[in-house]
Write a structure and sequence with these properties.
Layout (H helix, E strand, L loop, with lengths): L6 E10 L8 E8 L11 E6 L8 E4 L2 E3 L4 E7 L3 H7 L6 E8 L11 E7 L4 H12 L5 E7 L8 H5 L5 E5 L6 E2 L2 H10 L10 E6 L2 H13 L4 E4 L15 E4 L2 E4 L6 E3 L5
Helix pairs in contact: 4-5
């Protein structure tokens, strides 16, 4: 285990991704006083606020990296007091970060088709992966993004800048196909031969637990390699506190240090 040192950072921007006072999604850019050398898509950052109310840091997937590692961006949803306090941060405010943390996605260039599956704000964990695939000029990339309604698809414009092959599903039918994104994914996979693994398909998923489990079952049933980025509550972010353990075929593992990205076949 490698213990990382805290990096001082300052807020560059903290923009709402929805109109109106009831906005619950934000995109924040942080300038680091020490640039990160390399970020693997799927890794995350721990952010600690300058607040006595919330001492423990919060984990957020790294949405984007800019200016040669001097700037990182995160996308977050206001779900509690900690993220509510984050939404009040303005340019110049100071925070402390640990990054990059965890293990990210692995891109196999030998695979013939790459399918990215994101659910809700969890799609943020796939943007950097799609960006890296684009930089590497990887072909045959398909993106599946689902949410409860069109109001929860605030990251869709960013994905559309990188890919034209995007399938959208909403549970209320307000945009794209009505239903779960995993149903759209299953229909997509059913179009191929009985043994789709012979086509060289690989799945990459990030989203709520239910969606990740559905993708895992689809992948295992069809013998398709899949990498899942798991969501979990955590405190330390480096594998010490054991708050974020998950079950694997080899026993228990920590989402923060052993993950957050796991091979579907390794999860129990």
């Amino acid at each position: 285990m490698t213990i990382k040192s805290t990096i001082d950072a300052r807020v560059i921007s903290n923009k709402p991704l929805q109109k109106g006072r009831a906005c619950k999604y934000f995109r924040m850019a942080l300038a680091l006083n020490k640039p990160v050398k390399k970020v693997i898509p799927g890794q995350f950052v721990h952010i600690r606020l300058e607040s006595k109310e919330h001492v423990l840091p919060r984990p957020f997937t790294i949405f984007d990296v800019k200016d040669k590692g001097r700037v990182i961006e995160v996308v977050y949803q206001v779900v509690g007091k900690g993220t509510e306090l984050m939404s009040y941060l303005r340019p110049g405010h100071k925070v402390w970060v640990l990054c990059p943390l965890g293990n990210g996605f692995k891109i196999d260039k030998k695979i013939g088709m790459h399918v990215l599956v994101g659910g809700g704000i969890g799609a943020a964990g796939l943007y950097l992966l799609l960006k890296e695939m684009t930089v590497q000029r990887i072909k045959n990339i398909y993106v599946f993004i689902g949410a409860r309604s069109k109001d929860d698809l605030c990251l869709l414009p960013d994905f559309k800048k990188l890919s034209k092959d995007i399938v959208v599903a909403t549970e209320d039918g307000s945009l794209g196909t009505k239903g779960l994104i995993t149903s759209s994914l299953e229909n997509f996979l059913n179009k191929f031969v009985i043994r789709p693994s012979s086509l060289g398909i690989s799945l990459y998923a990030c989203g709520p637990r239910g969606m990740s489990e559905a993708v895992r079952k689809l992948a295992i049933a069809r013998n398709i390699p899949a990498q899942l980025s798991l969501e979990a509550r955590m405190a330390c972010g480096v594998g010490l506190c054991r708050v974020c353990v998950c079950r694997t075929t080899k026993g228990y593992a920590t989402v923060c240090e052993d993950g957050p990205v796991f091979d579907a076949q390794d999860l129990a």
